[in-house]
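Q: Sequence in, structure out?
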Amino acid sequence: PENTLESARSADAILLGAVGGPQWDDLPMESKPEKGLLRLRSELELFANLRPASIYGDLVEASTLKREVVEGTDLMVIRELTGGIYFGQPRGITGEPGSRTADNTMVYSEAEIERIVRVGFDIAGKRRGRLCSVDKANVLEVSVLWRDVARRVAQEFPDIALEHMYVDNAAMQLIRAPKQFDTIVTGNMFGDILSD
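A: Exactly. Output:
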């Protein structure tokens, strides 16, 4: 609601818990709690989501992965949060039952990519100096642009090692050898999936 948005705008900080749940799965898209979350992100320009992942010694055995694979994992996923497929237009479901189609559009501008990639370089500079940009440039034009912008911005950060990785490989590598990563920067959908 508007009053929630205004309260958030006037606050010095916002603490937000989990949003959504199975009891709301059957609501129309515009009535789902996640729509409110997306609106807060968009209206407040909360474009950079920092998602650290590290393993604590006492919890190593709680992992389904082998100790030698996960022990010492310390990485940061930087997820772009206000663009991409979750916000792109057109979107929706059209047609009659039995012949419906659905559309979701992935859109990123150079400015959106540049601002999140800059956050990635900044964070990587405060960590171990390695940034992995995750995309799907072999099949998505959005990712081709993403890589182009990341390479251009990288020229301003000569002390940061930039590599690119396809999202499907990144998912496998996070399970196979998570310690190879320092800082990951990626778009909204890929960041959502990989960091969860």
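The chain has a mean pLDDT of 94.
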